[in-house]
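Retry 2 of 3 after timeout on previous attempt. Resubmitting structure tokens to design endpoint.
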């Protein structure tokens, strides 16, 4: 399969695609990004890779980072984790409050904001320095030591993160948050602010395409059963109220972020990342979804 040729075709086809998406502005720092950025990267299990456009430029990975927090929590905890967070698609937006109220402070899944906040609470109970552990984990599985948080993005979200604060307070009232709320929010915002390129993300997500092993060293970081479960959650919950749409159009497990990045993985084949900052009304990259749909159409590979 000539992935490079396919990626160039997709880039060419989408040059004049009518993109009426909108860049996220509710985190003011994110609105400074050039909305026309567009890049993609595909990393294969045989070690080869292909890319196009702005694939090497770092951007704010936002909710894609929830996969790393979840991975750490699943390494630390057994099935008791699922008493505090469910594993069902939410069918509502990533920062919805009303569903959480109706369901007694138990988040639908670990990829909506409330679920990621409970995960952060768990990391805070288990680690002395959770932010350092998150960084250590990403640097280890990517093999890129220079990956870091973007403090200006984290601080910008902190000043405007009222919905996340509301979610945390609501869960605290239900007894599902154990630690100090401001500390949890600080860690969560820093995790979301991780700045990575499409290439770095594609390499990092090979862990999930390669049964929990780092591709180059074959070192097992997570047992395959835990990877299977994370992939199942990415499939059913990775795109909030558009998880069905992504499964229908693209047919791969994946995770999006409001920075405009989308990661998709084909277990035992490849990880693919696209970045385009303009979002559709569900908060997912409009061009990113289109590009990945074309990728699985052209290759004929989807998990279905
Ligand atoms: N940091 C963002 C928030 O909490 C993440 C949301 C996202 O990427 N979908 O709102």
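Retry 2 succeeded. Sequence:
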């Amino acid at each position: 399969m000539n992935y490079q040729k396919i990626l160039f075709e997709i880039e060419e086809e989408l040059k004049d695609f009518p993109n009426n998406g909108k860049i996220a502005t509710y985190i003011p720092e994110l609105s400074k990004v050039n909305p026309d950025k567009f890049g993609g990267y595909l990393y294969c299990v045989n070690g080869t890779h292909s890319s196009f456009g702005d694939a090497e430029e770092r951007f704010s990975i936002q909710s894609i980072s929830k996969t790393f927090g979840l991975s750490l929590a699943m390494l630390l905890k057994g099935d008791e984790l699922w008493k505090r967070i469910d594993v069902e698609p939410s069918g509502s937006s990533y920062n919805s409050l009303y569903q959480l109220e109706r369901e007694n402070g138990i988040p639908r899944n670990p990829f909506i904001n409330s679920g990621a906040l409970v995960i952060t609470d768990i990391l805070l109970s288990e680690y002395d320095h959770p932010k350092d552990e998150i960084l250590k984990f990403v640097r280890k599985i990517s093999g890129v030591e220079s990956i870091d948080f973007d403090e200006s993005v984290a601080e910008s979200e902190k000043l405007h993160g009222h919905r996340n604060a509301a979610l945390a307070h609501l869960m605290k009232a239900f007894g599902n948050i154990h630690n100090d709320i401001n500390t949890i929010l600080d860690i969560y915002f820093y995790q979301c602010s991780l700045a990575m390129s499409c290439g770095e993300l594609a390499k990092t997500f090979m862990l999930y395409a390669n049964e929990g092993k780092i591709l180059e060293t074959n070192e097992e970081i997570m047992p395959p059963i835990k990877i299977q479960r994370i992939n199942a959650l990415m499939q059913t919950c990775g795109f909030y109220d558009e998880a069905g749409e992504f499964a229908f159009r693209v047919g791969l497990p994946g995770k999006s972020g409001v920075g405009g990045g989308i990661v998709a993985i084909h277990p035992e084949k490849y990880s693919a990342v696209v970045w385009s900052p303009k979002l559709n009304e569900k908060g997912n990259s409009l061009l990113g979804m289109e590009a990945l749909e074309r990728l699985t159409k052209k290759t004929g590979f989807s998990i279905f």
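Attempt log closed. The pocket of glutamine is lined by residues 62-63, 94-95, 113, 157, 164, 192, 257-258, 283 (CB under 6 Å).
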